[in-house]
């Protein structure tokens, strides 16, 4: 697929350029960018002020989870029994596949309305996976120094949070 006379920097630009990445296997973000916390492919984007980025992330991630848990507790909804057990299982299995394939869907549909409808469809299944608004938000970089592993580890904090609330 590559011409034989392509240099390493040309291959790097071709493979990593669209994601603002550089280095071996596109492993690092370019200067001035960091990995996005709401992007399924960890695309590198320009970082906001670090305190503002953290505030936005915490508001978007933890306020909806807190409201969701409060609704479950106030209305005494039993998620692990009966009909809701099957619904939660179905939504988790479906949203796992949709989260992986989400980047491909965004490339297929070109109009903003189509992307909105697909995001709305994904968000219905993401509720029980505790990913409420990630489909509607633009990519967000919290900190320029955060690594890919840090972003992935941060995604494990949200599912643990409801257990801390209870």
Give the tags.
two-stranded antiparallel sheet; 166 residues; mainly alpha; 4 strands; two-stranded antiparallel ribbon
Average pLDDT across residues?
Answer: 81
Low-confidence stretches: none
Strand order of the largest sheet: 1-2
Oligomer: single chain
Largest sheet: 2 strands, antiparallel
Task: Report on this structure.
The longest helix has 26 residues, at 83-108. Helix 2 (50-74) crosses helix 6 (157-165) and helix 3 (83-108) runs antiparallel to helix 4. A hairpin with a 5-residue loop joins strand 1 and strand 2. The relative contact order is 0.16. The protein has helices spanning 8-16, 50-74, 83-108, 112-126, 148-154, 157-165; strands at residues 21-22, 28-29, 33-35, 44-46. The chain has 166 residues and is mainly alpha-helical.
Structure at a glance:
It contains 6 helices and 4 strands. The chain is mostly helical and 166 residues long.
Topology:
Layout lengths: L7 H9 L4 E2 L5 E2 L3 E3 L8 E3 L3 H25 L8 H26 L3 H15 L21 H7 L2 H9 L1
Antiparallel strand pairs: 1-2, 3-4
Helix pairs in contact: 2-6, 3-4
